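Quick question, first post here. What does this chain look like in 3D?
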Amino acid sequence: QVQLVESGGGLVQAGGSLRLSCAASVNIFSINVMGWYRQIPGKQREFVATITSGGSTNYADSVKGRFTISRDNAKNTVYLQMNGLKPEDTAVYYCNAVRGVVLYVYWGQGTQVTVSS
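> Answer (accepted):
Ran it through. C-alpha cells below.
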C-alpha cells in the first residue's frame, strides 16, 4: 500500500509560480512511475507530467516549458514546479503512483491550485 500526501497548492496571480510536493509513504525507488494529474469540476482528470524511477520525464503539451517534475529520493518526495501559471491551469492537482509488476495505481487526496487573471 502506498499513501501519497500532496501539499503546496494555493492562490496565485497569472504569471506566478507554485511548487507542489507529493510525499510517499514508501521508498520511491519501489515505485515504477510517479506523476501529476489535474481535474476541473465536471471534466475528466487529465495528465500533467510523469517521472519514472530512472528519472525519465514526460509532460503534457499544455505545460511543456512551464512545469518541471522532479524527485528527491532521500525524502521520498516528487515535486511539480509550476512557472508562468495561467488561469487555465486552475484545477485540483493529484499525485499518482504506479507500482509493482501488476501496476497498482495509487492517488493522493489532491491539492487546489487557483490562478487569477
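The chain has a mean pLDDT of 96.
The two ends are 40 Å apart (CA to CA).
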